[in-house]
Amino acid sequence: MRNYKSIALVALTLGLGSVALPATAGAQAILPQQISMDDARDIAAENGVVAIREIQLSGNRWEIWGKDVNGRNAKIEINARTGLVEWLNRD
Question: Nearest to residue 40, comparing CAs of 90, 80, 87?
Fold first, then answer.
């Protein structure tokens, strides 16, 4: 004969044990990767900054100074997480 009370108690214990865990138990935060300096250089070149003088990571932005194809001074700021151009200025 089976002991239904024992089976029910085990099932109830296992079921409640999983409910008692916090929602973030075992969860890991996935942060976006930062684009590399080479990627930032490529993005700058795609936007016309070809003769690069300086590249600097400032906070969450790559700041790149150089010249465009016409020889004008240019500065571009690229979001280091998304790779999107946030600012571009040509003198």
Answer: 80
